[in-house]
Design brief:
Elements: E1 11-21, E2 26-29, H1 34-48, E3 53-55, E4 62-67, E5 77-81, E6 85-90, H2 93-106, E7 116-125, E8 131-137, H3 145-157, E9 162-166, E10 168-169, E11 172-173, H4 181-187, E12 189-190, E13 194-195, E14 204-205, E15 210-211, H5 216-228, E16 232-239, H6 244-249, H7 277-290, E17 298-302, H8 309-312, H9 315-323, H10 329-346, E18 350-354, E19 367-370, H11 375-382, E20 387-389, H12 392-395, H13 417-421, H14 432-435, E21 438-443, H15 453-460, H16 463-472, H17 480-496, E22 508-515, E23 518-525, E24 531-535, E25 546-547, E26 552-553, E27 558-566, E28 569-570, E29 575-579, E30 588-592, E31 624-627, E32 631-651, E33 663-670, E34 674-682, E35 690-709, E36 727-730, E37 734-735
Parallel strand pairs: 2-3, 2-4, 4-6, 8-9, 8-21, 9-16, 16-17, 17-18, 18-19, 19-20, 20-21
Antiparallel strand pairs: 1-7, 5-6, 5-7, 10-11, 12-15, 13-14, 22-23, 23-26, 24-25, 24-27, 27-28, 27-29, 30-32, 31-36, 32-35, 32-37, 33-34, 33-35
Bound molecules: ligand TNX.
Length: about 725
């Protein structure tokens, strides 16, 4: 049987024959690898109910862990299964551990017999990147020690090596600091929590006190558990922003000294650490307790989303800017980070910060985590700094993973598995030399909308599984169909471990396109050997519904419902595609500039394909995203066409930096009288996620329409992402 290994190994050869595993097989390990062999035995005990006898000689029938300096990569390994023995060879214990993880995937998820036949095979494997991470925010919601361990264990099965633990934020401080008891008493708890979505009007709260923190003993236990699995725990202590919880406990850490509460809703808050001597002392004392708990060479100091409002109005800050000869508050932030870096470096550690630490000058030895797209990574790598890629477009697992309406509430966005899988961590702008600064990539799990461990698992898996292959495997080996197939097998391993992963493998991907000038629905499933059934009368498809095969012609407006079936048994959820016929469908369209590479939708044709964007997931195929650019859309008809209305919608999600434009322009271009500017209309700004606009044109005849959509501009003070360029998201252009 073909093995289904994730992440896919560099080289895999299948040989004739099998190795028979039973309880009399013995185990051998070279001295450095004994701990891994023992870990393996613990695993067998749990899985098969027996352990193997660890012997100090290589018996005839053995599983052998062999230390081999000829294996180049420290994390690499070789796994050889032959009829008589199984060998796992590696230079280091970590490599041997990964060999063992691969071996685990050769065993059936559910064991039904005492004797297991294992296909003879030879695998040679090593990772592409040295940093393969997953993040977890425990501030917005708090997770038990048991869940953290389970999460870490799953990451180790995927050969990830870093767990980025986001321990402090506005909504709660989650690590015990003995010197500052109020961090436990005050900063670890909030009075209540926002329920529903931040954008709901009015916002609602649950009225219940919420919180908790990890004691230093628990932290040690977790770090130890992780290190047995070759996972480095990277702690994050946020500064100077996302510090409201700490300031609630010790108001003197802020600029105003005013008493504030631990935040009860999400967002970016203005109360940030004031760069006073006493604040630096506080942070140094905190780090003095944090650093010894984590063997990690890196400490993450945050650095993101720190509004400068308080600093601008603070006498001390302004004096400091003058005294230090700084240009502005951004340079003050850089001063803050550089100073903390010096301290951390003096203790033999290095800092990592979010890409905002580039603003006002990068601290000399810092590693940058690039989240606002990849520009931060490019800039940092070009100036010789290490970078880790974690852009929102491909790495934010708090976004929706399916456009199905029944998905649990998420922050927004749309990041399906395939998009994660398609991620290329090395930005195209980097030369081969510069690319060496890319340490790897990471998936982030921010937990504003993730209040239980079940939901955390649902959002993290399988996208973390795709990320493991992105960071471990050779990109030439990557193939989404093949991955999906291996994943369908991996599901059984997850089932056996009671992981509440999301399964969207049996969902339908649907498009409206043209085939031989005929407008058609084009439907696809991820797993290919299944049946699609559909209806067009608004009902949900059943085992008797019509079978879809190869394109479905469209004549006029229609609602298509479809689902994946195993013959007559429905596997996935219903998929609905609403086609609204209008005059621009099938016309010629051009676009300048092109959408941002992270949000291309289904390209320019998607703007006039009769299908509107999803109302809660701006990243789907129907929304096109542009970052900080004015957009011109030109639609051309074969002949002069009579037009009564042109309408579209803009997405408006300020938390994600998306703003509707403030105005929109339209021109008609005709052969006879050239260009006529028809109108520029203001767009009414509202606190709603969808901002529609319609031009009333009363039967204008034209061959060519030009629509001009200026960018909103820079994000205003007081809003999330203030000072950054705003995004514009444009939906279907409906011409009637
Ligand atoms: C931005 S990513 C944040 C977080 C939020 C996240 C939600 C980053 C450095 N800051 O504080 O939780 O967006 O997606």
């Amino acid at each position: 049987m073909k093995p289904h290994i994730i992440p896919i190994p560099s080289q895999l050869d299948i040989h004739e024959g099998v190795f028979v595993l039973h309880k009399n097989v013995s185990l051998y390990a070279d001295a450095d690898l004994i701990a891994v062999a023992e870990f393996f035995n613990d695993y067998l005990k749990e899985k098969l109910g027996y352990t193997l006898l660890l012997q100090n000689k290589q018996d005839v029938q053995t599983i052998q862990f062999i230390q081999d300096d000829a294996i180049e990569n420290d994390e690499g390994y070789q796994l050889i299964v032959s009829a008589k023995k199984i060998q796992i060879k590696a230079k280091t214990a970590q490599g041997a551990f990964y060999g063992m993880q691969t071996f685990r995937q050769l065993l059936p998820a559910v064991v039904e017999s005492d004797e297991l036949q294992i296909q003879n095979i030879q695998i040679t494997d090593a990772p592409r990147f040295g940093y393969r991470g997953m993040h977890l925010d425990v501030s917005r919601h708090f997770f038990s020690v048991d869940f953290i361990k389970k999460y870490i264990d799953l990451l180790s099965q995927l050969k990830m090596n870093t767990f980025h633990w986001h321990l402090t934020d506005d909504q709660g401080w989650r690590i015990e600091i003995k010197r500052y008891p109020k961090l436990q008493k005050v900063a670890a708890y909030r009075n209540e929590t926002l329920i529903g979505h931040y954008n709901d009007i009015p916002q609602q709260f649950d009225g219940k006190k919420y919180g908790g923190y990890y004691t230093q003993e628990e932290v040690k236990d977790i770090v130890n558990y992780a290190s047995e699995r070759f996972i480095t725990v990277l702690p994050e202590i946020e500064m100077p922003g996302h510090a409201q919880a700490a300031i609630a406990a010790y108001p003197e850490l802020g600029c105003t000294g005013e008493v504030i509460n631990v935040a009860t809703k999400w967002g970016v808050f203005e109360d940030i650490y004031c760069p006073k001597e006493t604040t630096f002392t506080f942070l140094e004392n905190v780090l003095d307790e944090v650093m010894p708990l984590f063997p990690s060479k890196y400490i993450h100091i945050g650095g993101d989303e720190a509004p400068k409002t308080r600093w601008k109005a603070c006498e001390h800050c302004q004096k400091l800017i003058e005294k230090e000869n700084l240009h502005d508050e951004h340079e003050l932030q850089s001063y803050f980070i550089t100073r903390m870096e010096k301290y951390i470096n003096s203790k033999g550690k290095q800092i990592i910060g979010w890409d905002e630490i580039l603003e006002g000058g990068l601290a000399p030895n810092a590693t940058v985590m690039s989240w606002r797209g990849t520009n931060g990574a490019v800039e940092a790598a070009k100036s010789g700094h290490n970078v880790i890629l974690t852009p929102t477009s491909h790495c934010y697992f708090d976004y929706y993973q399916s456009d199905n309406e029944s998905e649990p509430l998420a922050i927004g966005g749309y990041l399906p598995l395939e998009k994660v899988y398609s991620f290329e961590p090395i930005p195209a702008e980097l030369s081969k030399e510069e690319a060496k600064y890319v340490l790897g990539a990471q998936g982030n799990l921010w937990t504003e909308y993730i209040s239980s461990s079940e939901k955390a698992a649902y959002m993290a898996f399988p996208r973390a599984i795709a990320m493991s292959e992105v960071t471990w495997s050779n990109p030439r080996k990557r193939d989404y169909q093949d991955f999906a197939y291996r994943l369908s097998h991996f599901h059984k391993q997850l089932d056996a471990q009671h992981v509440n992963y999301a399964n969207h493998l049996y969902e339908i991907e649907g498009n409206v396109t043209t085939r031989d000038k005929q407008l058609v629905f084009d439907l696809q499933t991820v797993i290919r050997d299944k049946t699609i059934r559909y209806t067009t009368d608004g009902t949900s498809p059943t085992g008797n519904s019509k079978i879809y095969d190869n394109y479905l012609p469209i004549e006029g407006s229609i609602i298509l419902n479809a689902a994946v079936f195993d013959d007559t048994q429905k596997l996935g959820r219903d998929f609905t595609l609403v086609y609204n016929d209008h005059k621009a469908v099938g016309a010629k369209i051009s676009l300048a500039p092109q959408p941002h590479t992270s949000y291309p939708g289904s390209g320019k044709e998607g703007l006039i394909n009769g299908v509107s964007g999803n109302e809660t997931r701006y990243g789907d195929k129907e929304w096109l995203g542009f970052w900080g650019k004015d957009v011109t859309i030109t639609i051309e008809f074969d002949e002069p066409t009579k037009i009564n209305t042109i309408s579209t919608r803009f997405y408006n999600a300020n938390g994600q930096w998306i703003y509707a434009p403030t105005e929109i322009g339209i021109s008609f271009i005709n052969d006879e009288d050239g260009r006529t500017l028809n109108q520029i209309s203001p767009i009414q700004q509202k606190d709603e996620t969808l901002i529609p606009h319609t031009f009333q044109l009363n039967g204008v005849m034209t061959k060519k329409i030009e629509i001009f959509i200026p960018n909103y501009g820079s994000i205003p003070e007081g809003k999330q992402g203030a000072g950054n360029k705003a995004w514009t998201f444009v939906d279907e252009i409906v011409v009637k």
